[in-house]
């Protein structure tokens, strides 16, 4: 049985197009529900978090250093620092914890 990759690509393109096009076609009036508006507002952030969090835990050689870096990033971000500052502090925390783990173990 031979598989034609172009058929797969065409089907994937069609499904992707339908997913993006159907909400626009089906909702012709403005959305007035506060619940739906807030849900649609936060969906991109939830998707980004769902994609980023597993990568954070597997980016270092130890889960302990990854959690430490994530914790430091949360604290610095909560204090409303810039993205560059958050990244630098998180990287520094991971570096320090990795060195401590090497020293201990």
Question: Secondary-structure blueprint of this entry?
Answer:
Elements: H1 5-26, H2 34-58, H3 63-78, H4 83-104
Helix pairs in contact: 3-4
Give a brief rundown of this model.
The protein has four helices and no strands. It has 105 residues and is an all-alpha fold.
| Oligomer kind | single chain
Largest sheet: none
Question: How many individual β-strands?
Answer: 0
Estimate the helix proportion, in percent. over 70%
Low-confidence stretches: none
Shape: flat
Number of DSSP helical runs: 4
Q: Which percent range describes the beta-strand content?
A: under 5%
N- to C-terminal separation?
A: 54 Å
List the keywords.
105 residues, mainly alpha, flat
How would you portray this structure in words?
Helix 3 (63-78) runs antiparallel to helix 4 (83-104). This protein is an all-alpha fold and 105 residues long. It is built from four helices and no strands. It has helices at 5-26, 34-58, 63-78, 83-104.
């Amino acid at each position: 049985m031979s598989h034609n990759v172009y058929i797969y690509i065409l089907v994937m393109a069609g499904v992707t197009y339908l997913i993006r096009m159907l909400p626009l076609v089906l909702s012709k009036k403005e959305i007035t529900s506060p619940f739906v508006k807030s849900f649609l507002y936060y969906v991109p952030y939830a998707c980004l978090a769902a994609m980023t969090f597993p990568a954070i835990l597997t980016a270092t050689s130890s889960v302990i250093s990854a959690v430490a870096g994530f914790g430091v990033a949360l604290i610095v971000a909560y204090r409303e620092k810039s993205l560059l500052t958050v990244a630098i502090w998180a990287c520094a925390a991971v570096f320090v914890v990795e060195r401590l783990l090497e020293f201990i173990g």
